[in-house]
Design goal:
mainly alpha; three-stranded mixed β-sheet; 7 strands
């Protein structure tokens, strides 16, 4: 998995972005680490939850034609969503994070116990039972246990069903228990921040493009989400040569003057990409000094 990133230390030091683009790999801890050409060490903790990362991994696999891998990733994403929702609902019941973690150790390696905990709390907090779809379970078992390699249309149908489930559950959590949701996200972010050397420049980022709790514009429909994800990836890919060209100009002495202060890394990156693609969303905050 990779994410687009730029050095925020360059922005702080020179008063403008370096335009030195990076596609940075990240793994289980969801932490980006890279060093820019000026020697600045950067660490960015992405806000994406494990289920969001798995969804994006599955979307990438599907676009590349790997249907088994896509189905396996979406299946794992749904299981991790159950775990995440279980944690949020426990928090909504007044269970503090340190107490929850002690309890969760007993079931950390047993997804069926986690599902049972989620089903019980879902019923208590929402007043209605959550019934896992039989078709999702059966398809998942065929892929995971029998090595079934689905056709593209079969994989897309399965991924669409999983996406619908995740979308509906997260929307319910956001609408009914937003405070518990935000506390759960903060606890996860803080726990990962503790693993980073405080001497290194640290920042946060929203992370995943395909689906993210940090975004308000997640697509309701899976096929629209996949198409939007594909388009966003192309925008970044097309922007890389232009960014590198800007970087070479900056290195050779060309000055770039910010029209307004841009402090947030995500806002800065969005602004640069919007301007590069000529989109209407750009606010013209960065211009070349004549």
């Amino acid at each position: 998995m990779v994410l687009f990133a730029m050095c925020m230390e360059c922005h702080k030091e020179y008063g403008h972005p370096s335009f030195d683009p990076f596609l940075v790999p990240y793994f289980e801890e969801r932490i980006l680490e890279f060093t820019c050409s000026r020697g600045h060490k950067n660490v960015q903790v992405i806000q994406s939850q494990k289920f969001e990362v798995l969804l994006e991994s599955g979307a990438n696999a599907l676009l590349a034609g790997f249907t088994l891998e896509a189905s396996a990733s979406f299946s794992a994403a749904l299981e991790r969503l159950y775990e995440f929702a279980f944690k949020v609902l426990s928090r909504a019941c007044g269970v503090e994070n340190n107490i929850y973690e002690k309890m969760f150790k007993v079931m950390a390696k047993q997804s069926e116990r986690q599902l049972g905990g989620f089903l019980a709390l879902y019923l208590i907090k929402f007043g209605t039972p959550y019934i896992p779809q039989t078709s999702i379970i059966e398809f998942r078992n065929s892929v995971i246990h029998k090595g079934f390699i689905p056709k593209p249309e079969e994989a897309k149908e399965f991924c669409s069903k999983v996406y619908d489930e995740i979308f509906e559950i997260t929307k319910k959590l956001e609408s009914r228990y937003s405070e518990a949701l935000q506390k759960t996200l903060f606890d996860d972010l803080e726990e990962r921040f503790q693993k980073i050397d405080p001497k290194i420049s640290r920042s946060t980022g929203t992370g995943c493009l395909f689906f993210s709790l940090s975004r308000k514009d997640n697509k309701i429909n899976f096929h629209e989400a996949l198409e939007a994800f594909k388009n966003e990836q192309k925008i970044i890919e097309d922007a890389m040569p232009s960014l590198r060209e800007m970087f070479e100009k900056v290195k050779s002495g060309t000055k770039y003057q910010p029209v307004a202060e841009v402090e947030d890394p995500e806002e800065l990156i969005d602004e640069i990409l919007n301007n590069l693609r000529g989109g209407s969303q750009g606010n013209g905050k960065i211009k070349e000094e004549s």
